[in-house]
Design brief:
The protein is built from three helices and four strands. By secondary structure, it is an alpha+beta fold. The strands form two sheets. A two-stranded antiparallel sheet has the order 1-2. Helix 1 (2-12) packs antiparallel against helix 2. The model has no long low-confidence stretch (mean pLDDT 84).
C-alpha cells in the first residue's frame, strides 16, 4: 500500500520536489520555491485528495487518509532538522484535529 501512496504523491507533487518515507507511515514531501502559504496549502490539499481515493491492494477497497504538517523555511537561517521538527509538530496537531487535515508549523 505504501508503494501506491508513493505513486500518488509523485503524481500530486511538482517535479521540483522530493518525497521520502521517514518510518512507519510518515512521509516527508519537500518542495522548493513555494511562493506563499496559500501555495503550500493548495499543495497539501492536492496531496490529501490524491491519497484519500480508495485503494485496492487485495480484497475490498481500503480507505487511506493523510494528515499534513506544513513548514516553510525562512531563507538561510533554519536547519533541515529544525524545519522537519516544525513540520512534524504541525502534522501531529493536524492528526489531533481530524484525519485528512493540514496545519502550519
Amino acid at each position: 500500500m505504501l508503494k501506491r501512496v508513493a505513486e500518488r504523491l509523485l503524481r500530486a507533487t511538482r517535479k521540483s520536489g522530493l518525497a521520502a518515507r521517514l518510518g512507519g507511515g510518515d512521509i516527508v514531501v519537500v518542495q522548493w520555491h513555494v511562493a506563499s502559504d496559500d501555495a503550500a496549502k493548495a499543495l497539501a490539499s492536492k496531496i490529501i485528495e490524491a491519497v484519500r481515493q480508495p485503494m485496492r491492494v487485495s480484497g475490498p477497497p481500503v480507505d487511506v487518509g493523510a494528515s499534513i504538517g506544513i513548514a516553510i523555511a525562512a531563507p538561510g537561517n533554519e536547519t533541515a532538522e529544525a524545519l522537519l521538527a516544525r513540520a512534524d509538530r504541525a502534522m501531529h496537531r493536524a492528526k489531533e484535529t481530524r484525519r485528512g487535515g493540514d496545519r502550519f508549523g
